[in-house]
Specification:
Layout: H1 2-13, E1 20-25, H2 31-42, E2 50-55, H3 59-69, E3 87-90, E4 96-100, E5 111-116, E6 125-130, E7 133-141, E8 150-154, H4 160-165, E9 174-177, H5 179-195, E10 197-206, E11 215-218, E12 221-223, E13 233-235, E14 238-239, H6 240-247, E15 251-258, H7 259-265, H8 268-276, H9 281-295, H10 297-301, E16 304-311, H11 315-320
Parallel strand pairs: 1-2, 1-5, 2-4, 5-10, 10-14
Antiparallel strand pairs: 3-4, 6-7, 6-9, 7-8, 10-16, 11-12, 11-13, 15-16
Helix pairs in contact: 1-2, 5-6, 8-9
């Protein structure tokens, strides 16, 4: 809910242009966007005032998103083969929804971009420092007695990735880089520079200091990424410094700040106290438990980070009116 409040506040701050084009990259099951729409609707923003654009490559997930956003109804409309989008429907609040396979297909207008647990699942290159310089970590067939018949090996010579994405002065012994993340950030930056907008990125991540974060999960249990390839979810923590580097010539960035910091600055404690009034004991326990899960360092409070992008032309305005939820760390 507080993400919806943040989007609404920042949209108003920039003149509340209508219709509002809201884009989410990798919307999962549509839960975040559903909550955002509830907030916007409470403040009178619904129907044709908003258009929703979902960047989703999985048609299976697009069905789940549609059911979540359209009161459980699934559209009977045919696939839009002759259009840039592959499916369209209408949300429960009356707003048009479009599904795309790539951000480049979305109309270029003033846009609020959302990316929640999106960048952490993009493909990465792993690099390792050696006595001969940076080498890329590759995957090879394991002809020995290894349990997964696959193994990690180092490239014999520098690869294009090591030449482009590494620096000799980097103090780390290993690093992970996502070229696809760089391309998407530059795409967002170009759109925002030309047409205006805001971007909010919420993800697991670090400020360019962490090293080996590549891992796999299956049935909520961590396992070796080389085990049964294709059956587990692969993830790597987002290098937020790397994302900021891609847009620094065009955009102004705020963050990253921890989820605990962002939610506290957005007034989550006040909201909790209001919700606790007149609620039953079981509801009270659930609310407090949810609050702790979101904010405590040992749970999600420190693991998730928030990063915001704004057009560079409004830097002076942002110095006087910094975005809600963030420290005044304008860059």
């Amino acid at each position: 809910m507080l993400v919806g409040v943040w989007l609404l506040s920042e949209w108003y701050k920039l003149g509340s242009p209508k219709p509002l084009q809201l884009v989410e990259m990798g919307p999962g099951r549509g839960t975040l966007l559903h909550d955002v729409l509830k907030v916007l609707s409470r403040f009178g923003l619904s129907g044709e005032d908003i258009s929703l654009h979902l960047v989703e490559v999985s048609e299976e997930l697009s069905v789940k998103q549609e059911k979540k956003l359209c009161n459980g109804e699934s559209s009977s409309q045919e696939q839009c083969q002759d259009e840039l989008y592959y499916k369209t429907s209408t949300s429960s609040s009356g707003s048009p929804i479009f599904w795309y396979r790539h951000l480049s297909l979305v109309p270029k207008l003033f846009t609020i971009f959302l990316a929640h647990e999106f960048f952490d699942v993009l493909p990465i290159h792993k690099m390792q420092r050696t006595k001969e310089g940076w080498r890329e970590v590759l995957i090879d067939i394991d002809e020995g007695d290894g349990p997964h018949h696959l193994r990690y090996v180092l490239s014999n010579a520098p690869t294009p990735a090591t030449k482009i994405f590494t620096e000799d002065e980097d103090p780390r012994a290993s690093l992970e880089v996502s070229p696809e993340a760089a391309v998407l950030c530059k795409e967002v930056a170009g759109r925002m520079e030309e047409h205006g907008g805001i971007a909010l990125i919420i993800d697991y991540g670090h400020d360019g200091k962490d090293t080996d974060t590549f891992r796999a999960y299956k049935n909520h249990q961590q396992q070796d990424p080389l085990r049964e390839p294709g059956t587990a979810d692969l993830t790597a923590d987002v290098d937020f410094d790397f994302l900021k580097e891609q847009v620094k010539e065009q955009l102004v960035t705020f963050g990253p700040v921890t989820q605990s910091s962002f939610l506290t600055n957005m007034g989550i404690e006040t909201r909790l106290q209001n919700l606790l009034k007149d609620c039953k004991p079981e509801e009270r326990r659930n609310l407090i438990s949810g609050f702790r899960m979101l904010t405590e360092p040992k749970q999600m409070g420190q693991k998730f980070k928030f990063l915001a992008f704004y057009p560079g032309v409004i830097k002076d305005f942002l110095l006087k009116n910094p975005p809600e939820g963030f420290y005044r760390n304008l860059e």
